[in-house]
Amino acid sequence: MLQNPGRALRELLAQPGIIMAPGIYDGISARVCEQSGFKLGYLSGAGVATSYLGEPDIGLTGARDVADVSGRIALKSGIPFITDADTGYGNVLNVIRTVWELEMAGSAGIQLEGQGSPKRCGHLNGKQCIPAEEFAAKIRAAVAEKMNKDTVIVARTDARAVYNLDEALRRADMYLSAGADILFIEAPQTLEEIRTITETFEGVPLFTNQVIGGKTPRLTAKEAQELGYKIIIYPDVMPYCASVMFRRACDRIMETGQSWDAIPDAQDSRNLFMTMGMKHWRALEPQYGDCTVLDGKLF
Fold first, then answer.
1. Distances, alpha carbon 110 to alpha carbons 70, 154, 279, in Å
2. What residues have CB less than 8 Å from 54, skipping those under 6 apart?
3. DSSP string covering 205-274, please?
4. What is the second-level CATH architecture of the domain 5-235?
5. CB 232, CB 19: distance < 8 Å
6. pLDDT tens across 107-160, in order?
7. What are the CA-CA distances from residue 29 to residues 64, 194, 228, 271 (Å)?
8. Distances (CA, A) of 99 to 20, 73, 257
């Protein structure tokens, strides 16, 4: 567990180059993210909604749901992660409480968005935005009342979809003035819009969101960096992959009545325990009690 995740994130932000962050949502996804070499995770609100609640990303999660997942991941995580806290789950006072909860749960950064209720995934239609001044107050409160000075506050606006790009830029500037550390102007729809965003906020750490089939043009990490982004997130890849692979495996079992070839290239499910840290736990056992490992083998 990182002792100061916010500081670890700020150290990453100070280094050159773009930071890639897959969307984590539980212990398996967090372990795989870290073991694959990523330096940052993104605790996806959509991932929590789909995996924790079994619901779509339409504002059905609460602060306690996200904090519970955050705490479980932070306990074993060796890399920092930014948590998607949706709208902060209420008014400005609720935002303060949400920030405290997520800081105590090990989040390095907290992302807040200026949508109204019911909120929506940034790449779905039917969104609403609260008044810019109201959301700026939420950002000011989050920055002023956070417990750890190193906690990073990310301000997201969906105003491009609700109004237009000019309004999104105006609002983002307000949120930067309110103290946001990172700006996230969600779902620009052309490369020209992306260039306008990065040129307008040159020198400011910027988020870009790559959603499979989403509204933002496809960008590689290298392309996003060249355009001026600092963080590129892939929030849907792991939860979407899980749903697709689960369905394929279950369909195969239903079809054949067996599971040995239900997962491509998988040979022994006990390897899952290795991914989850089996070697670490087995190394601890002889230090604190009796245990037997035959011939030094774990399986």
1. 11, 6, 32
2. none
3. -BEEE--TT-SSPP--HHHHHHHT-SEEEETTHHHHHHHHHHHHHHHHHHHHS--TTSSTT---TTHHHH
4. Alpha-Beta Barrel (3.20)
5. yes
6. 999 999 999 877 877 677 878 899 999 999 999 999 999 999 999 999 999 999
7. 20, 29, 28, 15
8. 23, 17, 48
Other beta carbons within 10 angstroms of residue 295's beta carbon come to 4
Backbone angles phi, psi at 111, to 5 degrees: -100, 130
Q: How far is CA 51 from the centre of its chain?
A: 14
Which token pair is 119? Answer: 């909120």
Query: Per DSSP, which regions of 99-161 are E strands?
Result: 109-113, 152-157
| pLDDT tens digits along 243-286 | 999 999 999 999 999 999 999 888 899 999 999 999 888 888 88
Residues of the chain within CATH 3.20.20.60 domain(s) are: 5-235
Could you tell me how far CA 76 lies from the centroid of its own chain? 16
Please give the radius of gyration of the chain, using alpha carbons only, rounded to the nearest integer.
20
Global confidence as pTM: 0.94
Instruction: Give me the residues paired with residue 70 across strands.
Output: none
* All residues at 6 or more sequence positions from 284 whose CB lies less than 8 Å from its CB, including other chains: none
- 31-52 pLDDT, tens digit per residue, is 999 999 999 999 999 999 999 9
Distances in Å between the Cα of 129 and the Cα atoms of 117, 135, 167, 187, 296 are 9, 9, 11, 14, 59
Name, in order, each residue with C-beta under 8 angstroms of 106's C-beta and a sequence gap of 6 or more.
1, 2, 5, 70, 71, 73, 74, 75, 77
- 202 φ, ψ (degrees, to nearest 5): -60, 130
